[in-house]
Design a protein that fits this description.
With about 260 residues, the chain is of the alpha+beta class. The protein is about 40% helix and about 20% strand. It contains eight helices and ten strands. A hairpin with a 2-residue loop joins strand 5 and strand 6. Helix 1 packs antiparallel against helix 2, helix 3 packs across helix 4 and helix 6 crosses helix 7.
C-alpha cells in the first residue's frame, strides 16, 4: 500500500495494488462502501459466485456487507485509488450481484472527489461527501439501463477496448473501428450513439483529454510530452482541444 489518509471519521482514501501473488480476499463482510478507480492493469472482482472485469480507467462500486475477492487479471500488477465510506445501511441494498462497473461519465465526479481531498480547500469534507453521494445517486438511475442499451454496448465492446488501448496513436481514426465490430461506418456510428450518447470521435477526444488531465495532475511531464502521450499531433491541437473541453489551457489547469 502506498498511502492511507483519513479524510473524516467515515471517509478514507488510499492507493493500493494487487498482483497475481497478492490477491485480496475478504473474510468478513465489509463495514463500508467503496468506490475505486483503476489506473493501471485490469482487476477481476468476484462476489456471490459472479465475476466482473474492471479495466484501466474504469470505476467500480462495492457495496457494504460484501464478502468478496479481487485479483490482478491478465497483468502483472493492477493499481487503483479507492474511497471507503459509510453513509448508512440503505446503501447495502443496491440491486446488483458484483461490483457494477461505471462508464466514463463517472470519471469527472471521481476526479472532483479526489481533488477535494488533494487540495483541501475550505469546506472540502462536505464537498467530498456530496460528490460521493452524487455518484451513488447517479448509480441508482443508471443501474436500470434498458436491454437495448446493454445490447448496443455489447456489440461495440471490442471497438471501445481497442480505442482505450490505442488512443495515444495520432493516426487512429474512428472509421477504423467499425470493421472490428463487423459493421459499416454508418451502422457503427448509430450503435455508438445509442450506447454512449455521443459520436465515436467525441468519445475519443474526451478520452484523450481525460488521460491528459490525469498526467497534468500526477506527473511533471511537459505539455508537449503529454500531448504526444495522449495521441495529439502537436501541442497546438492539444491545447485547442483541451481548452474547448475545460475552458482553460493545460498550463492553467495544472496551476
Amino acid at each position: 500500500m502506498d498511502y492511507f489518509y483519513p479524510i473524516q471519521d467515515d471517509i478514507k482514501i488510499m492507493k493500493d495494488y494487487l498482483t497475481p501473488e497478492k490477491p485480496y480476499f475478504a473474510t468478513t463482510p465489509r463495514n463500508h462502501e467503496s468506490i475505486f478507480f483503476v489506473t493501471k492493469g485490469n482487476l477481476i472482482y468476484t462476489k456471490n459466485g459472479a465475476s466482473e472485469i474492471v479495466r484501466k480507467d474504469h470505476i467500480g462500486y462495492v457495496s457494504k456487507g460484501s464478502i468478496d475477492e479481487s485479483r490482478a487479471f491478465e497483468c502483472e500488477r493492477v493499481e487503483y485509488y479507492v474511497f471507503n465510506f459509510s453513509f448508512g445501511d440503505e446503501m447495502k441494498n443496491l440491486p446488483f450481484p458484483t461490483s457494477c462497473v461505471f462508464d466514463k461519465s463517472y470519471l469527472g465526479l471521481f476526479k472532483k472527489a479526489y481533488d477535494c481531498f488533494f487540495f483541501k480547500k475550505p469546506g472540502y469534507k462536505n464537498l467530498l461527501a456530496g460528490y460521493l453521494s452524487e455518484i451513488i445517486g447517479k448509480l441508482y438511475g443508471d443501474i436500470f439501463v434498458t436491454k437495448r442499451h446493454k445490447t448496443a454496448l455489447e456489440r461495440i465492446e471490442i471497438a471501445v477496448n481497442f480505442l482505450s488501448e490505442s488512443y495515444n496513436d495520432p493516426n487512429l481514426k474512428t472509421s477504423d473501428l467499425a470493421p472490428l465490430c463487423n459493421m459499416s461506418e454508418k451502422q457503427f456510428r448509430r450503435v455508438f450513439l445509442e450506447a454512449f450518447g455521443k459520436t465515436p470521435y467525441s468519445f475519443l477526444q474526451e478520452f484523450r483529454i481525460n488521460q491528459a488531465e490525469l498526467l497534468l495532475e500526477s506527473t511533471s511531464k511537459s505539455i508537449g510530452e503529454i500531448a504526444e502521450d495522449c495521441g495529439f499531433y502537436d501541442i497546438y491541437s492539444f491545447s485547442h482541444c483541451f481548452k474547448k473541453h475545460n475552458g482553460v489551457s493545460p498550463t492553467n489547469f495544472r496551476k
